[in-house]
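Example record

One chain of 369 residues, shown exactly as stored in the release files.
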Amino acid sequence: MWRTKLLLLLIFVLFLSSIVSAQVKWVKHINPTSGEDYGYGTCLFGNYLVVVGEAGGSPFLALLDRESGEVVKTWSEGNGWFYNCVAIGDKLYIVGRAWELDVVYRIYVFDINLNVVNRIQVDDAGFSDIIYQDGYFYIGGYKWKNFSGQFRPVWYIERRRADLGLVAYREIYDAEWRDSGVVNVGVNPVTGDVWAVGYYKLGGVWRPLVAVSDRDLNLKRLVQLPNYTGFFGGMCFDSEGNAYVDGNETVTKFDKNGNYVKRYDGGGRIVCVKDRLYLFGRVNRTAVVPTWRLAYSVIDAKTMERIRQVELPASSAGDLTNFYAPGRPSFDGRYAYAVGVLDLSTGGRSLIGDTEIVVFAVSVVSSVW
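Predicted structure tokens for this chain:
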């Protein structure tokens, strides 16, 4: 009898493994240094998947073959980090913070061979996200502002031409906010409005915020949720213009005008696929000593209920294992791509610090195609 039970258990485990294998096209571990390496954002660049982040304190960029997951080429120089990217034609545009010889650059432009073809300095500002829509770049982050002799970061959004010439900018702030910044930006496909999500600090409490502007960055609406704390870290839109905003271990749904609709309890980095949301985060399966496993959840966009959760083949007892904002997953019509971080320490946070970048390509399924 026990042999029969053991055999059935083994068959069940193999069945579950086959399901995960079918849903995960490939996994790629990238460990460029013996120190802390982080992956944040992804974007599509021809036949490549671009992964940006930092490697041992330097900006890091990798081109991966989308079919195999193999690393084709990498770039890392100077000090700092890269956060997010977007590819237009044969050029790759990246935002972050990189300094070389005491000069700080906020925007980098690369060709397909990862040669630097342009670098942009922006005084007293920091960028976390960049997108491209209808001939213009929209870039979000923060800018230092003087409040009666006290400098504090405020929300900062730019609109730039294809040649990166500055067209318009918008600062959003309240004199009572102690700290604030944009984490992600997006353009609503139905209204054409520019959305920005992020955070502000008031009375010692971090709070999430959504700003809705027109294409010229004239502010139309600020959406504050009094009962929420923390930050908003990413977003995507469906074909009806509904926005899905992640952050603070939740996903919040808004209609196209910015009205609150519903909330899903579960955090991670989000990408919209037709009538489904793919949310990349982490789960803990042990009660005493945490063992973090990277995973993704598939959520019904209409009901905001989870359809299933798939644990990815990457786990660690180190508490740095996660998918990090402001990074954004990508979708190419067949697969969703996300980059996370795997903590290589045996528990807690290592004094030395050794993390690696791990990239996933997962199959997507929608009821609407």
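Notes: The CA atoms of residues 144 and 153 lie 4 Å apart.
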